What we know:
Layout: H1 5-10, H2 13-35, H3 43-65, H4 72-77, H5 94-106
Amino acid sequence: MSYTNKEITEMSDEQLVHALLQTDRDLVGLRFRKFADELRNHALLKTTRRTIARINTELTSCESAQDLGKGELVEQHKGSFVPKATVVEDFGSSFGNELNEEMEEEQ
């Protein structure tokens, strides 16, 4: 998922860590789809990497404001992270449509 700068700056520490972990999972999924030739929009990789960088920048500023060491916020909040099955829209990819259908059937 892509976040705006305003959304990132308004997040709490826990929300930032969860957004970072989820976005990192999304990036791994995009990379798998790229190597399997199922990813049509390769620009999603770039925007996801940049989103991760923006979240990391905000986390670093929060850690320095609280006099914490590098990575301490992630260590504090990663235990409460619950991964979500996300599907990145890829202009009608059959992989995304099948995954959406499976997720709807499970609910």
